[in-house]
Structures are given as structure tokens and as C-alpha cells.
Amino acid sequence: MRFAALRARAPGGTYEELAAPAIAREGLSVTCGDKSVQPGTSYKYRVDTINESGRRTLFETDAIATPAMPLTLHQNHPNPFNPSTTISYYVPAAGPVTLDVYDSSGKLVARLLERAMKQKGTHLVEWRGRDAQGRSVSSGVYFYRLTSGKETISRKMVLLRARNKRAGEKRERGRSPQSYDRRVSSSVIVGRRVSSHAPSRHVPS
Predict the structure, then answer these.
(1) Does residue 84 share a domain with residue 49?
(2) pLDDT tens sequence across 144-192
């Protein structure tokens, strides 16, 4: 036997089965967790049992109201990031939304949304670490700012570019033999002891 949890918007909504409900049963008590609700919305729930004999409704709830939530800007993920990150936000009512990215000096780097009409609910935007001209920006601290109606919310994020190993290798190969000799000759040799800064070698008596 297995349990199935169904949800309907109240009043008068059609029941739909939840994809991955957290259902637990202890004796005659059954609990069901639902993480996909919309704030400020009322729902009704139903739990069915399913076995070889068929499907039977175990119980049905009255309307359950979820509390309303204000305009919300979530922390980007991942953070720090390279090369891209996802920004999520919640709007409590349909309306235009603007989302900007600024550098630490306050300069506008990129406008991800410009008065884009969004419905009530949670939305996602990806930033790939590029400016308005499509150029990759450097490592550093950036701020993203969400504006909807008269409200504005800002958060901080960190971009960490990976070090270019090939460039480092090219610089090492480009050093002249004279520069290597100068580095070795600057090592201090006392008696038969050679400092750890120089390559290991035999010192004649």
C-alpha cells in the first residue's frame, strides 16, 4: 500500500497529485509536507491510499490559508560563483520588474530585466558574469538590485574567476636564463650548508 497526497486551490479547485510529498504516518495520525505552495493562497488537501484493491480517500482537509509574503529577493546561488549564478525573487502581485547588477563602485554593470511584466510568484534569472556589451567582468563583489513598484531590494554576490594557469606557464617559460642565474646566485651558502631557496647541489670543500 502507498499514500498519495493531492492538492486543490480553494474554493472549487481541481485536485492534482503532488509529485514528491513528504507523507508520514504514526498510528492513526498522517502528516503531509508541501513545499510548493504560493504565499497568500488557500489550498485543500486530500490523502488517498492505493493498493491492489484500488484507491480510497483516507481524509480531506478544510481550506488552509498560507500567509502572504512581500516582495522578496533571495540570495543568488551559487555564491561565490564562476562563471554564472542564478538569482531568484518573489513578487506578491503582477507588475513590472527591473533587475540590475552594479559593481562595488556603484557603476551599473548589466540590466537583467527592464520593467518586465511578471505574474505573482517566484521567478529565476541567470547572470553569466557579463556586462551590458557582453564582455566578461573581472572577479569582485557585485550588487544586484530588484525594483517592483515603489519597492527596491539589494543583495551582494561575489564573482571569483579561475586563475589562468596557461598564462602563468607562459610567463615562467619566458624568463631568461640570466634571470634564473640571478635568483640562484642570491641564495646564501654558508660552509657546506645551502639554503632551502636554492636548488640542491654539491658544494666542494
Answers:
(1) no
(2) 999 999 999 999 999 999 876 555 555 556 555 555 444 444 444 344 4
Confirm whether 167 is domain-assigned.
no
Domain count of the fold of the chain? 2
Question: What is the 3-state secondary structure of the chain?
Answer: CEEEEEEEECCCCCCEECCCCEEEEECCEEEEECCCCCCCCEEEEEEEEEECCEEEEEEECCCEECCCCCCEECCCECCCECCCEEEEEEECCCEEEEEEEEECCCCEEEEEEEEEEECCEEEEEEECCECCCCCECCCEEEEEEEEECCEEEEEEEEECCCCCHHHHHHHHHCCCHHHHHHHHHCCCEECCEECCCCCCCCCCC
